[in-house]
Amino acid sequence: MKISNLFGKTLRDDPSEAETAGHKLLLKAGFVQPLASGIYSYMPIALRSLQKIEAIIREEMNAANGQEVLLPVLQPTEYWERSGREEVMGSVLFHLRDRRDRPLVLGPTHEEVITDLVQRIVSSYRDLPVTLYQIQTKFRDEARPRAGLIRVREFAMKDAYSFHATQESLDEGYKRIVDAYKNIFSRCGLDIALVEADSGAIGGKDSQEFMVLTATGEDELIFCNQCNYAANQEKAASIKPPVTSSENLPIEEVSTPNIVSITDLTKFLEITADQTIKAMMYAADNEFVFVSIRGDLEVNEVKLKNFLKATDLRIATEQEVATSGAVAGFASAVGLSKIRHIADDSIKIGGNFVAGANKKDTHLKNVNYPRDFDADEIIDIATAEEGHQCTNCDGKLTVRRGIEAGHVFKVGQGYSETFNSTFLDKDGVEKPTIMGCYGIGVGRILGAAIEQHHDERGIVFPPSIAPYQIHLVGLNMENESVSSTANKIYTDLQSSGYEVIYDDREDSAGVKFNDADLLGLPLRVTVSPRTLKQNAVEIKERTEEPKDAKTVQIDKMMPIIEQIISEWR
Fold it and tell me: For the chain, which terminal residue's Cβ has fewer other Cβ atoms within 10 angstroms, N or C?
């Protein structure tokens, strides 16, 4: 492809709307064009990378016994109502109606559809196991699209679903897909971490995420510095920091005028946060829940929501707090009896806490569990934090950021039971199929690769997913010797099977080199009057510094290029 013919253009200035380095480079390099918030047109150069990513995915999924299907984007709403996910997904679903006024959704995922399809085909244990996958456009009405292709409202995703007769078969199939995913991300040149994760709206018991490690990631990941424990912060557990405790002292009131935060309280009373109990009240669907946690910790709302099996969870308003008998800013479980109380297990670590008195401008000193208050449930609802002790060993937890690029689930029998996906076992007994679910964001891989692989000059593409292998640059194209030599090299490289983009424009060397670095193709070959004086070209890999460029005789160029490219594989 000659750049003079390429549809699209690079930008000289950084786009103001870009939120992350990868987002900036996608726009600046002309890979995508925004149409609306979270909706992009993919330019020809981007589509080449996406097609390479899809090819890698297909090869690995086929090798893992996957069979490709293509499922409908339009889905009757009744399927989502049957599974209960129409309410769970809520405003994320795009709803519409056809001309007969039948309600439909644009599929954000296909668990309901695939399970219905399987129940039409599978009838015997002999039909199992089966793994079906597709690469399909998905739609999710994200509240806050961000970071270019990382969180969008229309996107390409590979979703796969496996159906099994036994749990052992699911475990084997799940491992096979996990291994396939490891191969996919490795072949795409991504540094990933496999972490324990929350199953979210998909449901199921076991769940793991493939996280692309990058400082601009939207997820916080928890790692142990000694063992192999790794989890998304939504799921992570930790051993809470210990605190010194003493004999329970008599409870007493203390005046705390206008002191409504833990920070202000600790300063006012000259204590530390772990000597306090933080109180919060939530609305969980149609129920109000009072929550207590040690003041140096934060409530993990995903853990709380999962424990409550709630569809919607939010902080209660000040007026709603008042209906429980608590006083906003000065609330505690002491004396409350008409509301469900859930406490983090940290309330049992320490004692003589300072807590609200449920009276304005007043707190209580020396509050102790269970002497002064009770709880309906005591569970782990705290956010694991940097420096906490690992639950598996004596190591300390560290925090890194990452982008979710793949997610795998052991879903179980929930969808099968809902959609009557059953089979007859060897004894003729009817049983529900056991299901696994596996997703990869195709566009996310491209976006995450750029977030992870770039420098101050532009993108540094992993060779396997670069839109082209070679960036051929002709300098001073008005020079007949340069243009004829560059044109011949372009033809020869293409004839040898290489993917080449050829900068044949009559622009300055600075513009051409800047664009070459910005686009980030793995290998640059430069033809200039200077090199031609030596009957040579200049060759530089994108990972090398400009000073490391090599001058190579034209008649020796092809073997050297072949050697460089062979080392990428």
Answer: C
How is residue 242 annotated by DSSP? P
| 96 and 232 co-located in one domain | yes
390, part of any domain = no
Q: What is the pLDDT of residue 246?
A: 82
Summarize pLDDT for 397-420 with one digit per residue, the tens.
Answer: 999 999 999 999 999 999 999 999
Could you read off the pLDDT of 178-213 as tens digits, one per residue? Answer: 999 999 999 999 999 999 877 555 555 678 999 999
User: What domain count does the chain have?
Assistant: 3
Name the average pLDDT for the chain.
Answer: 93
Q: Is residue 206 within 8 Å of 167, Cβ to Cβ?
A: no
> In this structure, is residue 95 part of a structural domain?
yes
Per the CB < 8 A criterion, the answer to whether 91 and 123 are in contact is no
Same domain, 370 and 412: no
pLDDT at site 163: 98
Of 252, 347, 239, nearest in space to 290 by CA: 347
Asked whether residue 387 is domain-assigned, the answer is: no
Q: Which domain holds residue 364?
A: 252-379
The span from the CA of 501 to the CA of 479, in Å, is: 20
What local confidence, expressed as pLDDT, does residue 383 receive? 94
Does residue 154 belong to any structural domain of this protein? yes
Please state, in angstroms and as integers, the Cα–Cα distance from residue 490 to each residue in 138, 484, 526, 535, following that order: 39, 10, 11, 16
CATH number of the domain bearing residue 361:
3.90.960.10
In this structure, the number of other CB atoms found within 10 A of the CB of residue 100 comes to: 5
**φ, ψ (nearest 5 deg) of residue 536:** -140, 170
Give tens-digit pLDDT for 124-170. 999 999 999 999 999 999 988 888 899 999 999 999 999 999 999 99
Q: Which residues contact 289 (CB under 8 A, 6 or more apart)?
A: 281, 282, 283, 304, 308, 339, 340, 341, 342
* Domain end among 424, 451, 478: 451
**Two tokens at 529?**
């009057």
pTM, 2 dp: 0.88
Is residue 39 within 8 A of residue 139, CB to CB? The reply is: no
Q: Looking at 29-73, which runs of residues are DSSP E strands?
A: 32-36, 39-42, 66-68
Q: What is the CATH number of the domain that holds 523?
A: 3.40.50.800
Q: Which of 379, 412, 433 is the last residue of a domain?
A: 379
- What confidence tens digit (pLDDT) does each residue in 441-461 have? 999 999 999 999 999 999 999
